[in-house]
Amino acid sequence: MFGENPINPADGKIAVLLPGMGAVATTFIAGVEAARKGWSAPIGSVTQMGSDANGVPIQDLMPLAGLDQLVFGGWDIYPDTTFDAAKRAAVLNPEHLEKSKELLASITPMSAVFDSNYIKNIDGPNTKKYDTKWEASLMLQQDIKNFLKDSNCDRGVSVWCGSTERYVEISEVHLTIEAFEEGLKNNDPGIAPSMIYAHALLKSGVPMANGAPNLALDCPAIIQLAERENVAIAGKDFKTGQTLMKTIVAPGLAARSIGVAGWYSTNILGNTDGAVLDDPGSFKTKEMSKLSVLDAIFDKESNPDLYGDMCHKVRIDYYPPRGDNKEGWDNIDLFGWMGYDMQIKINFLCRDSILAAPLVLDLALFMDAANRANLSGVQEWLSFFFKAPQTSAGKFPEHDLFHQRQMMFDQIHNFVPKDSAAAAE
Amino acid sequence: MFGENPINPADGKIAVLLPGMGAVATTFIAGVEAARKGWSAPIGSVTQMGSDANGVPIQDLMPLAGLDQLVFGGWDIYPDTTFDAAKRAAVLNPEHLEKSKELLASITPMSAVFDSNYIKNIDGPNTKKYDTKWEASLMLQQDIKNFLKDSNCDRGVSVWCGSTERYVEISEVHLTIEAFEEGLKNNDPGIAPSMIYAHALLKSGVPMANGAPNLALDCPAIIQLAERENVAIAGKDFKTGQTLMKTIVAPGLAARSIGVAGWYSTNILGNTDGAVLDDPGSFKTKEMSKLSVLDAIFDKESNPDLYGDMCHKVRIDYYPPRGDNKEGWDNIDLFGWMGYDMQIKINFLCRDSILAAPLVLDLALFMDAANRANLSGVQEWLSFFFKAPQTSAGKFPEHDLFHQRQMMFDQIHNFVPKDSAAAAE
Amino acid sequence: MFGENPINPADGKIAVLLPGMGAVATTFIAGVEAARKGWSAPIGSVTQMGSDANGVPIQDLMPLAGLDQLVFGGWDIYPDTTFDAAKRAAVLNPEHLEKSKELLASITPMSAVFDSNYIKNIDGPNTKKYDTKWEASLMLQQDIKNFLKDSNCDRGVSVWCGSTERYVEISEVHLTIEAFEEGLKNNDPGIAPSMIYAHALLKSGVPMANGAPNLALDCPAIIQLAERENVAIAGKDFKTGQTLMKTIVAPGLAARSIGVAGWYSTNILGNTDGAVLDDPGSFKTKEMSKLSVLDAIFDKESNPDLYGDMCHKVRIDYYPPRGDNKEGWDNIDLFGWMGYDMQIKINFLCRDSILAAPLVLDLALFMDAANRANLSGVQEWLSFFFKAPQTSAGKFPEHDLFHQRQMMFDQIHNFVPKDSAAAAE
Amino acid sequence: MFGENPINPADGKIAVLLPGMGAVATTFIAGVEAARKGWSAPIGSVTQMGSDANGVPIQDLMPLAGLDQLVFGGWDIYPDTTFDAAKRAAVLNPEHLEKSKELLASITPMSAVFDSNYIKNIDGPNTKKYDTKWEASLMLQQDIKNFLKDSNCDRGVSVWCGSTERYVEISEVHLTIEAFEEGLKNNDPGIAPSMIYAHALLKSGVPMANGAPNLALDCPAIIQLAERENVAIAGKDFKTGQTLMKTIVAPGLAARSIGVAGWYSTNILGNTDGAVLDDPGSFKTKEMSKLSVLDAIFDKESNPDLYGDMCHKVRIDYYPPRGDNKEGWDNIDLFGWMGYDMQIKINFLCRDSILAAPLVLDLALFMDAANRANLSGVQEWLSFFFKAPQTSAGKFPEHDLFHQRQMMFDQIHNFVPKDSAAAAE
């Protein structure tokens, strides 16, 4: 039947492989454990708590793996267990840390592929030594293979939870699989660590989602690879605090044909992410990701009277007092009937990792579903979770949260369990 | 064909009859004039500036009357021209007042049906003398007849732009047309002036929308009357400042399964509306209207973990320094993954009449379309414009702005010009 | 020498007697313990951390008792230890509670004098039974005598940390000592529990400060009693969150001759204090206290162009989600050169008990110093700590925080240790 | 008698010479005219509206020149009249512009000394041509001489109202009068236009105040020159929006020994000042000025527990939609008793020129008083008006607004009219 995607049952154990096991990854693991043990509901996770317009839970609409099926692993530049990493991240309070200790203390990251040209302001000892990036990819492929075997997992999914790499322009090396693999062998400086992970994961048949704004999966070579290897990819940059609010508020203003003269956004954050973004190279990557959303929602060309002169500025400042508890302040200059001006200020006191963690879970489960339904290449229906939704060549990204919600549910309704699909034929 | 509403062409002159010709009504008229003359685009009006998801203007999707076809009239307790009323309202700056003077100075309100039991804190001399409310309705029917004739209008539409009446519970007198008309003759104290207007307008075949939170059209007797007389009605309470923002932001939080522990809203405004709301009776009417929106969007029953304990408070304070430039401040207490708390503060420096005026235009044009398409009774597809959308018996109101947008466009797509409708058969 | 107050040394143990041992009192005790043990500095206490304009610590300017000399006691309607009360108050985190457990668990409140006509919305079992209010005072006097003996204290001080009683107008019974004591014997309904405490404490020679806005000490009879018994009193209403900010910001605007058209203040809080203030009687007491500050700082009579039309509104709303973490939002409408308007918004996310606790310490130590210097009656130099500074008959209260600071330091410099005073003669 | 400054009567006409006749200068002139004509009080001017702690107006405490005695002139890179400049600045509304037109249209700026190495992002045609900076100073001296003669003024005062020049480090050329004058002749690149104005004005016996953060008067050579020529100087950088609020709020927090973990400040403004500050060189000058205030008020050395780890960040962003209506947002991270954290957010919607204009008036009148009292060199008692108060060598600047207020009144009380001074001897 048209539009349907037959999907295999959600049985078996699934390796959740996380490049970057810092604040986000450890908070994600601790919260899954809390939900398994029943001492905290998985708030903020739409796969666990969400329902469609008729109130039917997503879990009843499609076959999703359960939390007990997940096995956690990953790579990090620090060799500590995820318990120590969580403690250092200072996201969880002492009581929650203690309750999660057993699981967190049992997980130790594998050594990471790291390149200080791509991430400044942090460094760590738990890194791989290699001569070529190709070799690095092979090492990662071996890691994956070992992990799946050691943990008795049928299959894996991966979500990039590492820091933001510096801004990279697409160049020759990113255009074809051949050029890319040649570049791996030649140590082409245009190939970032996140791309090496992508290469290794896709070659291992593991779907990958990218929670950071760096390219990683967003270049023709990787998209081609995903399609050739028949693996799903999705990205990029978790839509969490300020940008989440933007893609909620902007569609509302546009729906009402209210004019926007300017939108000024500033962010303060004091965690490792903030320290990394204090480097101009990484900031540019992030800024590009954050700036794109408004242009897509407020269409200047079609609505020059409303948005033609809109001035959009985005600032991020590293401000250590706040730690992981980032904060956004937005000033929106509006104009209405006869041009009279109005203003909206939005102050969002949020928590970086608390907002991101449930997205890791949702992406892991949905990517696993894509895998079971044999979907490959860019999964645009997951745009709902990203600041800068990655698309297949030629498509425009959708930024309006409510259109994204629609896209997600359209796909959810498309999944048809294999048996019933067979029966329907 | 199923779901289609054949609609007559939008030709001819249309009387726009406004009970209450104060700040909102005069700003509406001045802005229509500005758009006609071309010195200001009709910002905030979706009929004039809006388009569907594919970018097709609403004006190309259905036959709508043009601004030049509108003729303005109405009733008010002050006898001044709309120019003097606009000056007193102090919404428009001197330059805009001057530019609109010719039209505004030419419009004088008819004498109003007024009852100080229903609106405290204001009073005026331009009121009708009558023995029974039935007589008052007859006087209004005569006004309407005269206005249509004098202005050479084919047909009319009406939008209530008056103040908020005190809170009224539905009682016997509101349940049937018979009881209601009996009540008119007996001067039943449960019949508010807005209901007398409704009676007169519907008996005259004029569709009516209600921009205030008082019942007016929202009782069984009036709904039955609208259906019997084959006239459209819609209400209630223009969705403008704080509540507009609520129905934008709340659906976004719900879409992401983010928990809400509390939502505190306070409003300051200093215009006549603020003075009227300083009366506890009128405030209660408004409060009921403003409180309902969150319960509908955050479904406590289905999502007890997320919204079960939500505390929702709404305050309105009369604060004269600000005049028509009302301001809302919202504090939203959220919780996310593992229960960690976060906060959003929204400060909306808005303008009451500037936000309401384009809704008057949109409602006038859409109600006229309903009239030409022979739609009668409650027009739920106009919920997009209202804080407390009126529904037919047994239906639940939709508050999510984005679902409302969908409902509106679904109906817009249903309108089929009479000729093409005929051709399609 | 003129203006000097010879003061006895600060030796010996001091009973700190607290009517009301809830959130504020228990946080105060825990923090003193933390400072004694050295695991937290006494932040927010000017006796411990403050210094004069030349940087000389207050502790070097006058003889003050040390933290180790304080012994804590008090009365409460709940019989639990202060550890249980602190736990219920949920101000301190589990780690801090645990660290303070030994001391807090050792303190049990004496049974309270309580009258539900004066405080609504809360009730408790640990109350005294008596026939007349006179008898109640005698019981309290016995409590005090016992406590001093049992704890080996030379002397005592008292700080009211109880809830806000309902608003009371000054009447005959409050005008003289005689009428007041007659009223105690007659159970005059105009005598609030806080006044019975005041009577008992003053009769016992214990100075008393009042942290709540109810009259308590602020009536002629009690002032006369304080003078006759040669005991110091001070009040009223701890200046903590929003009002503290007001008395900081308003003097700055006044210093610059900036006009103020309006000042709108709203507060949300969810602790017991908030529940009590949800009763209109108690709210009125608080509102009177909070409203007075601006009129004193912005002098309408002398500056009609700047403050003649100022509109000042204060709201307090009980909002449970926030617990003890109250929040204020202020909107200030300014106007400057040629009348152009400007706005300041202040959003203070504060903590009720955290701000009040150090004031309890400062008042206890300063009142003990007043005692040792033989100062009696109203201590205006402590206005710095109060929302509604109590004054002797005929004096106007000073609200400007910076003038209050000056008054405080003037008195601090007046204290001369007895020996050196003798030597100087 | 000790501490008194005999002062000559305030008779005669005074030339007010303004380098930079843009938004601030034109708003200042229009407002003085409004006050003269009586259609707007001089709000925000302490010389006109302020009084001491006893309510005695400053004008009764010392002899000050009246508004009618002032004659306005100055220099600008644009040749338009001040009416055209005011129109372009878009600070005043059309009605106010019209009312001030007669005076504003009669004032044309003299050609300016301009150097695009010092101010980027703006340029204009009305500039002097010269070979050496010495020659430029001579031209300015001739301008001053002519202006005084043509306008029949006895004496002059000057207030720099120009843009912020780029950051300059003090070097050899700024250390002595000789080196400086040698530098003028050699076109030393370290000599900014504002210094050339300072040289010309001081050589002409005209006191000068500096409303911008550039050095101008703040170098040893100019201070020596002021002392040698017996002329008063004062600076620097008008204390207007965000920094004014800082020096109000910070002293209040310090008075209460409340800890400060961080203070984050961001500013958006869209006028010429904003455009100039978009240049990193000018921004650095401004940033240095804005950053200094907190360190002085929160003394880290004496109070390491309270302010030892304070993180202070200041941002300024050019944001055109807002024009002259700049806006500041501050987030202050506090901690109190036992280290519990709290937050204050301050959002100041202000107007750059409206806040600065009355300071121009106050500085002009006070500098004229200093002139008549024969005060020379740096006038620290005017610190009240400046973000970065200039001091004589070896003194620390005072930033606390309330200490500054005290310093100002101390000096005001020192002025003794010449006759009475004689009589008192």
Sequence-ordered SSE layout with sheet pairings:
The structure is a homotetramer of 425-residue chains.
Chain A: E1 5-7, E2 14-19, H1 23-37, H2 46-49, H3 58-61, E3 70-76, H4 82-89, H5 94-105, E4 110-111, H6 133-150, E5 155-160, H7 177-186, H8 193-203, E6 208-210, H9 220-229, E7 232-235, H10 242-255, E8 259-269, H11 272-277, H12 280-297, H13 304-307, E9 311-318, E10 327-335, E11 341-349, H14 352-372, E12 377-378, H15 401-414, E13 415-417, H16 418-424
Q: Strand order, main sheet of chain A: write it out.
A: 4-3-2-5-6-7-12
Number of strands of chain A: 13
Tell me the number of helical segments of chain A per DSSP (H or I, 4 or more residues long): 16
What is the strand content of chain A? 15-25%
**Shape estimate of chain A:** globular
* CATH topology-level name of the largest domain in chain A: Rossmann fold
Q: Distance between termini of chain A?
A: 8 Å
The domain tally of chain A reads 2
Quaternary form: homotetramer
The percent of residues in helical segments of chain A reads 40-55%
| CATH superfamily heading of the largest domain in chain A | NAD(P)-binding Rossmann-like Domain
Low-confidence stretches of chain A: none
Task: Report the major sheet of chain A.
Answer: 7 strands, parallel
Structure description:
The structure is a homotetramer of 425-residue chains. Chain A is an alpha/beta fold. Chain A has two domains: 5-238 and 353-424, Rossmann fold; 242-349, Dihydrodipicolinate Reductase, domain 2. Chain A has 16 helices and 13 strands. A seven-stranded parallel beta sheet of chain A has the order 4-3-2-5-6-7-12, with helices on both faces. In chain A, helix 1 packs across helix 4 (82-89) and helix 10 packs parallel to helix 12. Chain A is globular and about 70 Å long. Chains A and B meet through helix 1, helix 2, helix 10, strand 11 and helix 14 of A and helix 1, helix 2, helix 10, strand 11 and helix 14 of B. Strand 11 (341-349) of chain A pairs antiparallel with strand 11 (341-349) of chain B.
